[in-house]
Design a protein that fits this description.
The chain has about 90 residues and is α+β, with helices and mostly antiparallel strands. It has one domain (about 5-85). The protein contains 2 helices and 5 strands. Strands 2-1-3-4-5 form a 5-stranded antiparallel beta sheet, with helices on one face. The chain is globular, with a radius of gyration of 14 Å. The mean pLDDT is about 90.
């Protein structure tokens, strides 16, 4: 069964939870059932990201390996700035 597409994001909230001992990780893994739904979540999480970018890791149908895409906000819209095989 393929893994669900997702991304790791570090926000002020996730960093605060890590420092307070409420979480084992400084980042949160956000995933969705489909790539389309994941792209919709980007609009919510990109402005919250501390470094201003998010990397999506996913499997592509008919391909072997893991595909990645680096996203940033460009003119208030999420845009891929780099992509390739991981």
């Amino acid at each position: 069964m393929p893994r669900k597409p997702g991304f790791w994001v570090t926000t002020e909230e996730t960093r605060r939870n890590f420092r307070n001992g409420n979480s084992k990780h400084e980042t949160a893994y956000i995933y969705a059932d489909t790539y389309r739904k994941l792209k919709q979540l980007l609009k919510e999480y990109l402005p919250l990201s501390l470094d201003g970018e998010i990397t999506i890791c996913r499997e592509r149908r008919g391909e072997w390996g893991e595909w990645y895409e680096k996203w940033q906000m460009v003119n208030n819209k999420p845009k891929i700035i780099k992509q390739g095989w991981n």
